[in-house]
Specification:
The complex is a heterodimer of chains A (about 350) and B (about 160). Chain A contains 14 helices and 2 strands; from the N terminus they run ααβααααααααβαααα. In chain A, strands 1-2 form a two-stranded antiparallel ribbon. The radius of gyration of chain A is 23 Å and the shape is globular. By secondary structure, chain A is mostly helical. The mean pLDDT of chain A is about 95. By secondary structure, chain B is of the alpha+beta class. In chain B, the strands form 2 sheets. A 6-stranded antiparallel sheet of chain B has the order 1-10-9-4-3-2, with no helix packed on it. Chain B has a 4-stranded antiparallel sheet with strand order 5-6-7-8, with no helix packed on it. The mean pLDDT of chain B is about 90. The chains are: A mainly alpha (about 350), B alpha+beta (about 160). Chains A and B meet through helix 8 and helix 9 of A and strand 2 and strand 3 of B.
Chain lengths: ~350, ~160
């Protein structure tokens, strides 16, 4: 075995770059804190999504006539179809949770500050990409939920002043939702977003390696902080956590099968469309803005929210990172978190 | 012939020409592929939907005052597919004896509204928008009234333009 590996190394020179890639030092505070595993877990979940997505693509038919029945076939007829689709469904939700937790951890630890501003900005872009995965994937079963949520979602784009109608048309592939809407969403979900995700993750990781993890918030003593090699010491912990997540996803897929409602019916007036749980707060927020202020809810608030996230490291430039010494940042977190939780609770109630 | 050493001036000129050639060729190649690619991706996305006359039903069977929910269908082309599109509208005969047809599409974010006969108003289940019997906004987020559809009567059959 060793001879083969040596021969391969002699011909490819792979050993050095691989060692540099996987044996970098992980500081002890990150090694012992499970919150520092959120990032790698997101990558693991993306791999599950890619695998289960490719498997479903063997059978999925992206047309309004066939989509629903092909998903029904995957879910109820194919052997382990419930597992593949269930893991895809729950893993998508878990990805949203972990991206948000990862961003919150970075926010509260002040890890977005100099020199890690761009790592943070790419993290915000990743949040948008993961949310877009959810939005585009929701339509693909062509059931009532997906159809109406997409209709509302594309109408939100349509409410943008001046260019709204064009944006809505470009998203739908026409004025009315139909086959070109489905093929567009499928292409975005299967090809464009995964390519964007991988590109941004690679940039995010490259910046993380260049600028290293932010040091511990509180460092006791004068000795430099100890570290462990990423492989195998730190990766072992991450692998165990990933195994736990796999088991949890399988259990969730078994106990709570991925939902599939009735087939999309554009002439139904009894169905109340609701988005997936992570967009519920926004669904509720839209109710509070009367017609003349529609663009405030559909354009200004999302722009302000994501704009302030992107600009955060360029506005908050102080060196202090401890959250208890940053009352404005901590207050903003409490304000946003309480707002999102309250709106979600009202919408779910 | 022996090589002659290039002067710094000639080197700079060569580098400048190479830079111009590189960016010129790159922009040309990206443009030559990118512009048709962008037009291809847009396709018919920006075309407005075709309008159709759809059958509402026999005029003498429409209620007076109260709305009736009408399901309609029409055949059309969806890109390369021949499809039957479906939708709903609300119709009634007004107190002046004239037929009225109102679109069921909420002007807020496109959900189908419901006619609540007991309250004499339309309600949108998505974001709690309300319209009166004429389709004017009463409350909630809708930015404008429900669309009143053009109608015509042929041999006692009411049709609406959607």
């Amino acid at each position: 075995m060793k001879t083969v590996l040596n021969w391969l190394d002699d011909r490819t020179g792979w050993n050095r770059p691989l060692r540099a890639l996987f044996r970098y030092p992980v500081p002890a505070h990150a090694h012992h804190n499970p919150m520092f595993s959120f990032g790698s877990l997101i990558v693991v979940l993306f791999m599950f999504q890619a695998l289960t997505g490719i498997l479903m693509a063997f059978y999925y038919e992206p047309s309004p006539e066939g989509a629903y029945f092909s998903v029904d076939y995957i879910q109820f007829t194919l052997k382990y179809g419930w597992l593949v689709r269930g893991v895809h469904h729950w893993s998508a939700s878990a990805m949203i949770v972990l991206v948000v937790l990862h961003l919150l951890r970075t926010y509260l630890y002040g890890a977005y500050k100099k020199p890690r501003e761009l790592t943070w900005v790419l993290g915000v872009v990743l949040l948008l990409i993961v949310a877009s995965f959810g939005f585009t994937g929701y339509l693909l079963p062509w059931d009532q939920k997906g159809y109406w949520a997409t209709k509302v979602g594309t109408e939100i784009a349509g409410s943008v002043p001046l260019v709204g109608a064009s944006l809505r048309g470009l998203m739908r592939g026409g004025d009315v939702m139909g086959i070109t809407t489905l093929t567009r969403f499928y292409t975005a979900h299967m090809l464009i977003l995964p390519a964007a995700f991988l590109t941004v993750v690679l940039g995010h990781l490259a910046l993380m390696r260049r600028n290293k993890l932010a040091p511990a918030l509180v460092h006791r003593g004068d000795e430099p902080e100890k570290s462990v090699p990423f492989y195998p010491t730190h990766l072992a912990i991450e692998a165990v956590i990933a195994l736990g997540v796999v088991v949890a996803l399988i259990v969730a897929a078994n106990l709570f099968p991925a939902p599939l409602g009735l087939r999309a019916d554009p002439s139904d007036s009894s169905f109340v469309p609701r988005p997936d749980w992570y967009f519920l707060f926004y669904f509720q927020l839209l109710k509070y803005f009367p017609g003349s202020l529609e663009a405030v809810a559909t354009v200004l608030i999302p722009l302000f929210f994501f704009g302030s996230m992107v600009l955060l490291p360029f506005i908050d430039r102080g060196e202090e990172r401890r959250p208890w010494k940053r009352p404005i940042a901590a207050g903003a977190f409490v304000f946003y978190a309480a707002g999102v939780l309250a709106l979600t609770a009202i919408a779910a109630g | 012939m022996a090589d002659t050493p290039e002067t710094p001036h000639r080197l700079r000129r060569r580098e400048a020409l190479s830079t111009i050639a590189f960016w010129g060729a790159t922009v040309g190649a990206v443009g030559a592929i990118g512009l048709p690619a962008a037009r291809f991706a847009v396709g018919d996305s920006l075309k407005e939907a075709e309008q159709h006359w759809v059958t509402v039903g026999s005029l003498d069977k429409l209620p007076v005052g109260d709305y009736k929910q009408i399901s309609y269908q029409y055949r059309t082309k969806d890109a390369w597919h021949e499809v039957t599109r479906e939708g709903i509208l609300y119709a009634r005969v007004g107190e002046d004896g004239q037929p009225v047809a109102i679109s069921a599409v909420c002007t807020h974010l496109g959900c189908n509204v419901r006619w609540r006969s007991d309250e004499s108003r339309f309600a949108c289940p998505c974001h709690s928008g309300f319209y009166d019997a004429d389709g004017e906004v009463i409350s909630g987020p809708p930015p404008k009234r429900l669309e009143r559809l053009e109608t015509r009567v042929t041999n006692g059959i009411l049709e609406a333009h959607i």
